[in-house]
Amino acid sequence: MRTIHETGLTSTLLADAGARFLRAAVKPLRAGWTVRGRALTVSVPAGDNLAIHAALALAQPGDVLVVDAQGYTERAVMGGIMCAQAAASRLAGVVIDGAVRDAAELRQGPLPVFAAAVSPAGPSKTGGGSVNRQIQCGGVRVEPGDWILGDDDGLVVVAPAEMETMVAAALTKAGTEARRIAAIGRGELRPAWLDEALAKATLDIGLAPRESK
Question: Domain 3-165 falls in which CATH fold?
Answer without folding.
Answer: Glucose Oxidase; domain 1 (3.50.30)
